[in-house]
Amino acid sequence: MAAKTLIIDGKEVSAEEGATVLQVARDNGVKLPTLCHLEGVYDVGACRLCLVEIAGTTKLLPACTTKISEGMRITTDSDRLRKYRRMTIELLFAERNHVCAVCVSNGHCELQTLAYSLGMDHVRYDYIFPKWNVDLTHRMFGMDHNRCILCTRCVRVCWHIEGAGTKNVAGRGATSKIISDLNQPWGDSESCTECGKCVMACPTGALFNKGTTTGEMEHDRDKLEFIVNAREKQQWLP
Amino acid sequence: MQLDDLNALVAKHVGARKKIVLRTCMSAGCMSSQADVIKKNLEAEVKAQGLEADVEVRRVGCMGFCGQGPLIGVDGLSAKEKLFEFVKPTDAPAIVGSLKGGACDVQAGNPDHPFFAKQMRIVRANGGIVDPERIEDYLAAGGYQALHQVLTEMQLAGVVEEITKSGLRGRGGAGFLTGLKWGTVAKSAGAKKYVVCNGDEGDPGAFMDRSVLESDPHLVLEGMAIAAYAVGADQGFLYVRAEYPLAIARLQTAIKQAKQLGLLGGGIFESPFNFNVDIRIGAGAFVCGEETALMASVEGKRGTPRPRPPFPAESGLWGCPTLINNVETFANITAIINRGGAWYAGIGTEKSKGTKVFALTGKIRNNGLIEVPMGIPLRQIVEEMGGGAPAGGQIKSVQTGGPSGGCIPAAYLDTPVDYESLTKLGSIMGSGGMVVMDDATNMVEIAKFYMEFCMEESCGKCIPCRTGTAQMFHLLEKITQRRGTARDLAKLEELCDMVRHTSLCGLGQTAPNPVASTLKFFRAEYEALLQPDPHGPRANGSVKTAEAVTP
Ligand SMILES: Cc1cc2nc3c(=O)[nH]c(=O)nc-3n(C[C@H](O)[C@H](O)[C@H](O)COP(=O)(O)O)c2cc1C
Ligand code: SF4
Ligand code: SF4
Ligand code: FES
Ligand code: FES
After folding, report:
1. Neighbours of B244 (CB within 10 A)
2. How many domains does chain A have?
């Protein structure tokens, strides 16, 4: 494949034909925020965080789906881009119920990390506080729609890596929702192979392994009592 | 079938026509007022009054003056056509009686009314004249001659050249040069190519495409077949929304009849050219009119847009080069082939050629469908053809382009209707919705209405559109309920800018237009609703960037 040279944030770099702007940026140590991008599955250009400025077009283009071309001049960071990125994150926080303090992902959430790095010290939009439920019907996993940002990473891994086709998007606009099979409780899904790839893919606390959520940890006091009894009373049966 | 056989068929059909024709509009507008019963009653009455030898009742498509419907046109009685308006099923005896000179108190229409006289009918030439369910009628009006000419006399490149010469621009909204698009698809490498006709028409207030499909389905099919020949496609899809059952039924009939005569299907006009058309019915999502979402829907997937490039011309349906055009765009093709690209380019303005069909609605005397040459001043449409606002009202603004467009204030009524002039005013040509508003209209409410529409129709894929429109709607609601402050207005404006520049597809990118254009021309109406800021004058509308705050 032919090599192409291009300029990214003023630095001349070369890359293979067919590469995306995002790949080239990452290969060259240029940091770009992303949410819907996930290594290993195809890109959909949905979150709009990786938008960059490209000389010669007034449109902002998503780095994850834009292929490089010879002589391209890319700007990945500007006041305008930062402003839009921060607004995007603020909109997400106002959209559903992201209560970090009680979230399974607190401290290792891509949304939270992005909010920090983009300097989101508060949300200027009114919180919408929609009513969403939590699906705990599955034996191993749970889905909290309050934390979902509709990045569709779970859908893509489910279809294109696992090949199960359990996860899907239903509805439109702000009422869009990740569903299992034909909008059934996840636990009733016949196609789910319980592989857990969607949980691995999720950037937030929307999908989680059961037993790891805040408040779910049970203090096994009986075990202490058992040990003490065994040691002091030589009593081995509970 | 060869051309000679076809001409013989037409001669027979024309020969069987009767002296007097009662044209009964059976398009959706008049059908909603019992046009089907009217037609049945007229037929019975012709029989009862013994006029069968001389009079025929013909089903026709929309005549345009839908606001005055149901309409009946009478040909062959006098030199000039006669028109009856607001016809009721019980009017049949009087109308038929009048053919013999009897008295008739059914309201007579005026075929010389500016509503008709100022029109220039290319796309709608057959509307209200031919029977949309009889291919013979379309053939008698010169139908399928252009396809024959293209197949027998023209090179592929010649067809594209003719369309390019005409200067025709896509009528689906964006106004992309049709010849350029055809040329790109023709040049794209690929053994399989597709032609898609976009009949999704989801703008509130728009019914141009529905009317064309209902009134003259073969015109669109012929345009598609010519396009397929020019770009090298052999399969077409006609995407129509499920809310248009009459259009779908007539298209099905038309496709069947065209196939029977060898005008669609394999070996058209006994040439090596094959072209099949299938109908795909959309479920009514506005976003499915966006070309990439439409193609996903045709492929049986969830109708959501994807980033372009690649454009459909390079990679469309199932990854193959695909030509996608609007209904009205295809409806212009036969006229351009028949009369030449140069003729077409002679109509309109320098950059906007030909005619445009508009659905004229709202606070205006004469509602209906009009086809006007590009460049006509808005004032002529609204005041002369439309007859101005109904009694007591005064026109305040004209909305074009639906939820992607804007509101043009009355002070700009002298603006010529062409792509560039409308864009300059912050509106767009759009697909042809034209809603007239009078002085009782609250412009902030209008902006809110369109924002609500966009919010509900957002596919939900990208964040700025999905949740940006929800926040903008919320802010507009706050303002209209007199709960908003100057800071809310600043937030609204900032969101307009952000959603426009970061959304994935045209829906989100243009969703702020109605707000932006009403803010531009009617800002005082917004400001009059604002409340003093309880937090004082501290202006906090701007966003801090990462540099200012180190985490
Ligand atoms: C949200 C949205 C809705 C659209 N709806 C329609 C529609 O209903 N009909 C249409 O022809 N084009 C519609 N378009 C434009 C199409 O994407 C496309 O540009 C058009 O069909 C191309 O045909 P043309 O070149 O003949 O205009 C829509 C675009 C967007 C962004
Ligand atoms: S559940 Fe997680 S991975 Fe799936 S769409 Fe929501 S946030 Fe993305
Ligand atoms: S702009 Fe709106 S309709 Fe278009 S992809 Fe984004 S969410 Fe969907
Ligand atoms: S990562 Fe590119 S749009 Fe989401
Ligand atoms: S629907 Fe009858 S005139 Fe338009």
Report:
1. 23
2. 2
